[in-house]
């Protein structure tokens, strides 16, 4: 005999289910569009541009994400998880100095992979609770990593955690300025930064090669051109 089934959904229930599914699809489209635009053009992209890229109305975007910080929080939660995990992995390294150098290289690479995330690591978002919670946890772990790395004698005694914020700001600037004209220029900067942080004679990874003069010249030409972000509105 056929197995009895429960009562079929009423038209009202079916309509509500369809609306929820449609709302979730819109949310995912918005997040995917924001990831693309933030990743290639930075956080200055207008909310109107995100809505247009996602093929939704501005009202739909506003219903899903009240503010730009809400959207940034949702877009970058996975990357902030990776950022926080990098410090955890560095602490797990039996050689604290090696863990420190790998952590520095890894977070610089994270910035290079995503222009939007490069900016996220150098800005504060007070209402973005997830991002700020991950940042706070990573900062605590990094403080402990600094203590252990100094105990090896390889990290300068006057190094402080906030020095990395300055480094990330510099790295974000290099990434924005060079773009695809000299895409590995940031590696050279991270190599110089590690050497600035180290004590004389500390073991270090090989110094990355410099960009070619031709590539840097192309980057300088590119940097002098107006950014698309400055030609439109920021609404």
UniProtKB/TrEMBL annotation:
Give the span(s) annotated as Disordered. 1-23
Superkingdom in the source lineage: Bacteria
The terms under GO molecular function for this entry are:
DNA-binding transcription factor activity; transcription cis-regulatory region binding
Q: Which sections of the sequence are annotated for DNA binding?
A: 46-65
* Keywords recorded for this protein, A-Z: DNA-binding, Transcription, Transcription regulation
Q: Cross-referenced SUPFAM superfamilies, in alphabetical order?
A: Homeodomain-like, Tetracyclin repressor-like, C-terminal domain
The record's InterPro entries line, in alphabetical order, gives:
Homeodomain-like_sf, HTH-type_TetR-like_transc_reg, HTH_TetR, Tet_transcr_reg_TetR-rel_C_sf, TetR_SbtR-like_C
Query: What are the coiled-coil residue ranges?
Result: none
Q: Does the keyword DNA-binding apply?
A: yes
All copies of domain HTH tetR-type, residue ranges: 24-83
State the protein's name: TetR family transcriptional regulator
**Which species does this protein come from?**
Umezawaea tangerina
Question: What is the organism lineage in this UniProt record?
Answer: Bacteria, Bacillati, Actinomycetota, Actinomycetes, Pseudonocardiales
């Amino acid at each position: 005999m056929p197995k009895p089934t429960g009562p079929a959904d009423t038209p009202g229930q079916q309509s509500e289910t369809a609306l929820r599914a449609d709302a979730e699809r819109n949310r995912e489209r918005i997040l995917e569009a924001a990831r693309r635009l933030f990743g290639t053009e930075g956080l200055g992209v207008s909310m109107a541009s995100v809505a247009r890229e996602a093929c939704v109305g501005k009202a739909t975007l506003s219903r899903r994400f009240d503010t730009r910080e809400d959207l940034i929080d949702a877009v970058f939660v996975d990357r902030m998880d990776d950022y926080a995990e990098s410090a955890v992995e560095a602490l797990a390294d039996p050689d604290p100095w090696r863990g420190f150098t790998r952590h520095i290289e890894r977070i610089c690479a994270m910035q290079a992979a995503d222009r939007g995330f490069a900016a996220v690591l150098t800005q504060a978002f007070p209402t973005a609770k997830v991002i700020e919670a991950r940042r706070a946890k990573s900062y605590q772990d990094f403080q402990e990593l600094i203590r252990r790395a100094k105990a090896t004698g390889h990290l300068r005694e006057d190094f402080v955690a906030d020095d990395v914020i300055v480094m990330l700001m510099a790295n974000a600037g290099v990434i924005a300025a060079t773009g695809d004209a000299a895409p590995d220029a940031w590696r050279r900067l991270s190599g110089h930064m590690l050497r600035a942080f180290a004590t004389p004679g500390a073991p270090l990874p090989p110094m990355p090669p410099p960009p070619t003069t031709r590539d840097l010249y192309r980057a300088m030409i590119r940097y002098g051109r107006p950014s698309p972000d400055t030609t439109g509105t920021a609404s």
